[in-house]
Amino acid sequence: MSTVQIREISLTLGYDADELRIITKRSSRASIETMIDDLGKLDETAAYSLEIKKIRGKRSIDANNYMWQLIDKIADKTRTKREDIYRNAIRENGVFDDVAVTEQALEAVVSGWESHGVGWFCDIFESSLPGCKKLRLYYGSSIYDSKQMSRLIDSVVYDAKELKIETMTPDELAEIKSKWGE
User: Fold this and answer.
1) Same domain (yes/no): 67, 42
2) How many CB atoms lie within 10 A of CB 22?
3) Quick one: average pLDDT of 53-70?
4) Do 11 and 78 belong together in one domain?
5) Does 33 share its domain with 72?
6) Residue 69: band (very low, low, confident or very high) from pLDDT cuts 50, 70, 90
7) Structural domain total, the chain
8) Tally of CB atoms within 10 A around 67
9) Half-sphere exposure of residue 7, counting CA atoms within 13 Å on the CB side?
10) 93 and 28 within one domain
11) Cβ partners under 8 Å of residue 81, min gap 6
12) Looking at the structure, do residues 69 and 143 belong to the same domain, yes or no?
């Protein structure tokens, strides 16, 4: 997969064909030439896909590790599973979507969602739609942006302080959070 920096995207709808125009920064020329070489001659009967997405800064491993260290200390002190501490923090501070699912599809949807990892889980509620349940789908922190992850860590730090568990100073915490984009 090649990455290029896009300056502008435009779409012109035509009668026989549509034109997608992507203008890149000049520094992306080598990557574009590589992509074209990899494709070779385009087959007009074949289908191709193009993915365009915003590149996010990666989370700092130090910040993520620190959160899990605190979760482990909270779990030890409260004699609770670390996964339960993590899920509770996500439930209280995390990212979720509410969806209606038919009762027939419920088990498959829940199973598929939760297969993404520990932080990907569901709460099931009654729905006003006949034959349906309301699912609250929680996203694991692996997809959180810096602001969302910062809120999650702050929550875990708060819980640790409530249990008299030593935490980083506010300056130290700000330092590890600031490294997310690096």
Assistant:
1) no
2) 14
3) 74
4) no
5) no
6) very high
7) 2
8) 23
9) 7
10) no
11) 75
12) yes
* Separation between Cα atoms, residue 63 and residue 68, nearest integer Å: 9
Q: CA nearest 10: which of 24, 1, 23?
A: 23
pLDDT computed for residue 11 by the predictor: 66
As to burial, measured by CB atoms within 10 angstroms (0-12 exposed, 13-18 middle, 19+ buried), residue 89 is buried
- Are residue 81 and residue 103 in the same domain, yes or no? yes
Distance CA(144)–CA(95), nearest Å, equals: 8
pLDDT of residue 39 exceeding 90: no
Residue 142: the pLDDT is 85
pLDDT at 162: 96
**Do 44 and 79 share a structural domain?**
no
* Residue-range definition of the domain harbouring residue 14: 1-55
Taking only the tens place, the pLDDT of each residue in 148-166 is 888 999 999 999 999 999 9
- The pLDDT-based confidence of 179 (bands split at 50, 70, 90) is confident
C-alpha 148/C-alpha 179 separation (Å) is: 15
144/132: higher pLDDT: 132
